[in-house]
Amino acid sequence: MKKKDLIEQLVSEIETGKVKTLGIYGHGASGKSTFAQELYQALDSTKVNLLETDPYITSKRHLVVPKQAPDQKVTACLPVAHELASLQRDILALQAGMDVLTIDEPWKTSEVLSGAKPILIVEGMSVGFLPKELFDKTICFYTDAETELERRLARDTTVRKRDASIILDTHKERRDQYNRYYKATESQADILVDQSGNKFQVKTTNNII
Q1: Beta bridge mates, 113
Q2: Which of 4, 72, 124, 181 is the most exposed place for a label (fewest CB within 10 A)?
Q3: Residues sharing a CB contact under 8 Å with residue 121, sequence separation 6 or more, in sequence order
């Protein structure tokens, strides 16, 4: 299945009311944000909200130490790095028809998401740690270590203005913590997409495609 085929299937399921809340997640630089944006662009913007979860990743990660790796900094691959209660509150508010003011970030200002819109796409690493009953369907993305590093360098040095040396120095830690803490969330997704080598392969579908 190609990317455009998956997008077309999701658009059909959303427009027919089969899917009203969609969760898209995966480790950093796995391709989830790009896919979420492409799906959002394929839908009627007057009917759909896109809630990005990066702002719910706490800036206080330096206060926590991974038990199995005390010499490492905490990355977003650990549940403790996410403000999950606040994120779940905002998802439930949108589902109940209430407006939500998103959290601003250096690369994106806050905006009001309208509770009047019936469709909600929630995108970001945090989705992997949320109760799956919040969503009608979930999609998880992953990629190999080399592709992740290539994408992270391209994105974080331009969009997020981060130093390339820091990205290189922390890459192994991020990948180690992904394998230890985050990889297990992949088996919970309805659809699993492998973008290793910048390809697009639907690896696991739980018999729904």
Answers
A1: 100
A2: 4
A3: 21, 22, 24, 36, 39, 40, 48, 49, 50, 51
CA distance 190 to 188: 7
User: Which whole number is the average pLDDT over 72-76?
Assistant: 81
Rg of the Cα atoms in the chain: 17
Q: Does pTM top 0.90 for this prediction?
A: no
pLDDT for residue 209 = 46
Domain 3-204 has CATH 3.40.225.10: no
pLDDT in tens, 32-61: 999 999 999 999 999 999 999 999 998 766
Cα–Cα distance for residue pair 24/138, rounded to 1 Å: 6
